[in-house]
From TrEMBL:
<protein>
    <recommendedName>
        <fullName>Lipoprotein</fullName>
    </recommendedName>
</protein>
<feature type="signal peptide">
    <location>
        <begin position="1"/>
        <end position="22"/>
    </location>
</feature>
<keyword id="KW-0732">Signal</keyword>
Amino acid sequence: MKSSIFLISACMLALGGCATTASVNENTTANTTQQLGMTALKIAVNAECINKINSIPAWQVASKLMTENQRQNTQTEICGCVSEKAPYSVTAVDLATATFDPNARASVVQQVVSNTVTSCINETFGKK
């Protein structure tokens, strides 16, 4: 009787370990995929931000008064701000869709940049 209980307990522990490992692996894969998606989003947002800034008339005038180094530093600061705000400007569903659909990705990136670029410009110039 005692050996049966011991055998059943050992089997349950072994099976429980397998279930836990599978769950941990699935969570790790999901987290890695999400991190890769966010990284890709930030890179795309940064590129779109630079294009967007260069099309803003106020930036075109202000940047003429800056040295090349100042212009690049300011652009980097503004687009860094936009990239950092990107995860808060997109839903998980939009991010998942954008991961697999290039048209959705372009739409999400444009939406994120449009929603955040002005506030980041204001934040950047408010610091100076």
